[in-house]
Amino acid sequence: MHKFLILTSLILLSVAFIGCDSIQKVVTPEQEPTVKVGFVVAGERVTYPNGAEMAVTEINQRGGLLGTPVELIGHINTEAIPEVSAQIAEQLIVEEKIIALIGPNRSSHAVVVGPIAQRHGIPMVTTTATNPNVTNAGDFVFMASFTDSFQGAVMAQFAKADLDLSTAAVITRSGDLYTEGISEFFARNFSKFGGEIVANEFYEGDLSDFTVQLTNIAAAKPDALFISGFTLEVALITGQARAIPLQNADGAPTIFLGADAWDSELLFDNEDAEVEGSFFSGHFSPETDEPTARAFVDTYESIYKSTPTGGVAVSYDAVKLLFQAVERAGSLDPEKIREQLAATENYIGATTIASYDENRRPTKSAVIFTIKDGKKQFHKQIDP
Fold this sequence. Notes:
Elements: H1 2-13, E1 24-25, E2 35-42, H2 48-61, E3 70-77, H3 82-94, E4 100-102, H4 107-120, E5 124-126, E6 141-143, H5 148-162, E7 167-173, H6 177-192, E8 196-203, H7 211-220, E9 224-228, H8 231-243, E10 255-258, H9 265-268, E11 279-282, H10 291-304, H11 310-329, H12 334-342, E12 345-348, E13 352-355, E14 366-372, E15 375-382
Parallel strand pairs: 2-3, 2-4, 4-5, 5-6, 7-8, 7-9, 9-10, 10-11
Antiparallel strand pairs: 1-3, 11-14, 12-13, 14-15
Helix pairs in contact: 1-2, 2-11, 3-4, 5-6, 11-12
């Protein structure tokens, strides 16, 4: 019965996430007044809204937010153009009168949407946007994910201390806040921990042949290659690197390292990708034994017949963080919601947040995965 109620509620309350030409929203059966929450996704992360839908369904099954049903108004910006995400946010705030905005998921989008939320005084909780600059817009902008400064240090220390690697190369998609930022944090920390960055290559986002960059990297014979790009690029780079083949000074295959952008079935299922034995950081492991997170995984799998990624988990948490702040505030007043978001302590959901710092960046753990038999596997958790 419980499963049936969840499925029924999701059918009635599910969001129509479509292309960037229009916004569609939930219509409740009775057309009753609702509390409206906006949700924005950029790129191919089409499963991220599932996490937000689950959180909305849960609160509505409990009677809504402060006694009023919640209406999730969602949008996938498939072209992944930051200006489009900014236009969507403005429309959601001005025309739809949302009480808060969840997302975007990309840092390059969040930094242009943040000032809009700040100007209108609307609380905004990003999902997987990880660059620390995301919250620079002001005190109405919060992050639900760890920062790249933490994630970069985690992967650098793991490469040096756990894998005992001495040299690393970096290849980065240029012109993107996230990709450039995480590469910088990795390289800086790897050097600080005693490693040596022996090559640092960049590429444009529309590139499909990485021969020039990989040939330069191969000449340096690095123990590891840190790849900072998006799914299709990572697949092509790893495949072409193995074909060279890319090896360290001892003739062993160079180990590939990555960050949370790797956490996608689109990468693991890509025939061009050669990621076996690689390591990457992420937000959340579905192999968790923590009771609240385990319940999230089990419910998600029962509804969507698939395993949630870190982005789905963080999308769920971003909405839950907002709802808890509203309930503590006992009000839909934006300033009171903002105050309670900032006061968050010991949040436990799919992931956990100990607290927020003065820049509204959370203190939380990261997970390291390895790829074995074409599937990601939990390797270890790194606490702050």
